[in-house]
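Why does residue order matter? Because the sequence determines the fold. Keep that principle in mind as you read this record.
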Amino acid sequence: MPVGNDYQVSSEGAVRHWFVPYARMTDTTPTVGNPAELTALVAGTEIGGTVLSIDASVSMAIVDFTCSMVYKHKVRNVRTYNVGVAELTWGVLDVGTRVYYDNSASMPADVYLSTSPLDLTGAANSLFGTIAYSANVTLPTTTATAATEEVPVMQRGAGA
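Structure:
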């Protein structure tokens, strides 16, 4: 069967917009535009994406899990924690810096991403993506003191 003349393509490759029940997300009260994490059986292997829409009447969200999509997200520059106590070290946010979904209790409100591979309890954070270049954001954005900045993040997504 021949391919039709009218079809859609994406410069990012296959677009992955999935319906996800709130119960399968780390943050069970998602907000449009925020990072999302689909829970997994093994800590640190979860996949991350960006919430595109929510339907509270059925507790479902549409999440973009497309590999290599770039969205601006708030990122905490914490690199390590004094396990069980507080943030210990910080670093600059720059192009190529790995970003993790961090569900630590010490994270500021509405901030879900950090540069720490381990959370406050010492458990593995899942890799969310990498800070990308944007003409609208000057990088590096912070010094090595505690800070939260909105930066472009190329998400790892599904199928990476």
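The chain is about 0% helix and 40% strand.
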